[in-house]
Specification:
Layout: H1 8-39, E1 45-59, E2 65-77, E3 80-84, H2 99-107, E4 113-119, E5 122-127, H3 134-179, E6 185-187, E7 194-196
Antiparallel strand pairs: 1-2, 1-4, 2-3, 4-5, 6-7
Length: 207
């Protein structure tokens, strides 16, 4: 017996995978990124210096050239020297237009003194611009999208199975009930003539 391709079993498996993967990405990766980006707004800061500032490019999908700023800076916390490269806590991504990357490079030229925000528990985790950006929510959003699609796929299959089972159960119960309905007539096993039921008058009077 072969399982029909694209049938309910396949939909249930795919839905379950989407639900597990999407939920894991949102909970274990996306949500901590948002929490960290929000927490960075209360991080302490110190003075740092920009050591590298340039626009980098690479080939993206369909051979599209993508541009991103590459910034590096140094700073000290409690006499310990640290190096950072994050402009934003969650990263900035890349774009097919170089304008955004050029603006960032213009804000942070080499040699400029810049305020650096750092995690007091781990100063190596740092950024020039604390807080959330659109990239802070991207992993969480993608994970939730997969989760919702998975729940819809798997939930639809489970709902159909539950409705089918309920219909079959109701039909079976009705069939058993109809078979159990008593009649008012019984038949003698010898001649097949009906014998009065228990609620019928047998013609014998009682004085």
């Amino acid at each position: 017996m072969h399982t029909k391709r694209g049938g309910p079993i396949s939909a249930l498996i795919v839905g379950t995978i989407f639900t597990v993967v999407g939920g894991s990405v949102a909970y274990f990766f996306g949500w901590p990124m948002i929490v960290e980006a929000k927490a960075s707004q209360s991080w302490p800061s110190t003075s740092g210096k920009i050591t590298v500032s340039k626009v980098e490019s690479h080939r993206g999908k369909e051979s599209t050239t993508m541009y991103a700023p590459h910034i590096e800076y140094v700073f000290e916390v409690d006499g310990v020297r640290h190096t950072g490269s994050q402009v934003w806590v969650s990263g900035g991504g890349s774009s097919s237009s170089p304008a955004g990357a050029r603006n960032v490079v213009a804000r942070y030229p080499v040699g400029k003194e810049a305020e650096v925000f750092y995690d007091p528990a781990a100063p190596g985790v740092c950024a020039l611009e604390p807080g959330t950006t659109w990239t802070s929510y991207m992993p969480f959003g993608i994970g939730m999208l997969f989760l919702v699609i998975g729940v819809i796929l798997a939930g639809t299959v489970v709902l159909k199975l539950a409705v089918g089972a309920a219909v079959i159960g109701a039909a079976a119960t009705g069939a058993i009930g109809n078979a159990a309905i008593p009649t008012n007539e019984t038949f003698e096993p010898t001649n097949g003539q009906p014998r009065p039921g228990p609620n019928e008058d047998d013609g014998i009077g009682i004085s």
